[in-house]
Design a protein that fits this description.
mainly alpha, three-stranded parallel beta sheet
Length: about 170
């Protein structure tokens, strides 16, 4: 979403700082929201209109993730974001702010890089580090893919079933 919680303006600014001079770098923003106009204006101000793409709401998020090299989330607050789990399941390394349940999903330095909320410099640095290191991206992406299995529906169902068995001591 392009709403205050997700801090999309800072994400665009971090992209500009980290990858503004890198040939071929693109930022794909999926979703709508109250900050769409502000994000579009900032993209124009930074001269990134050809490199930052506001894709709107998409039914093909899996294809967008498959076409990506990394996933970035600049949220100021979160619960347990499904988008991060989807990115990890797609084999993408994650750069994200360490808010809410994100640190439970992303293992800093293993499946991605975590940054303090609102820290433009650290976010830009993390984006640049992963963008410039294909081996690190692949290693973190594979680690994230492996870790994403811990959040699958099948595992959740099995763990709930085991919990109910323990709580009822096998009684029907």
């Amino acid at each position: 979403r392009l709403d205050p919680q997700k801090n999309p303006v800072m994400l665009v600014e971090a992209f500009a700082r980290a990858l503004g001079g890198v040939a071929g770098g693109r930022l794909l923003l999926v979703g709508q929201g109250s900050l769409r106009g502000e994000v579009a204006a900032r993209v124009k101000e930074l001269g990134l209109a050809e490199r930052v793409h506001l894709l709107g709401v998409r039914p093909d998020v899996a294809q967008v993730l498959a076409a990506s090299d990394l996933f970035v989330m600049a949220s100021d607050w979160e619960g347990t974001p499904l988008a991060v789990m989807e990115a990890m399941a797609a084999g993408l390394p994650v750069v994200a702010t360490a808010v809410g349940g994100v640190p439970e999903l992303v293992k800093d330095g293993e499946t991605g890089l975590l940054c303090p909320a609102g820290d433009l410099g650290t976010l830009a640095e993390a984006m640049g580090r992963l963008a410039g290191d294909g081996l690190l991206r692949r290693a973190m992406g594979l680690a994230g893919l492996t870790r994403s299995a811990e959040f699958s529906v099948d595992r959740m169902v099995a763990e709930y079933a085991a919990l109910f068995e323990r709580l009822t001591e096998g009684r029907r």
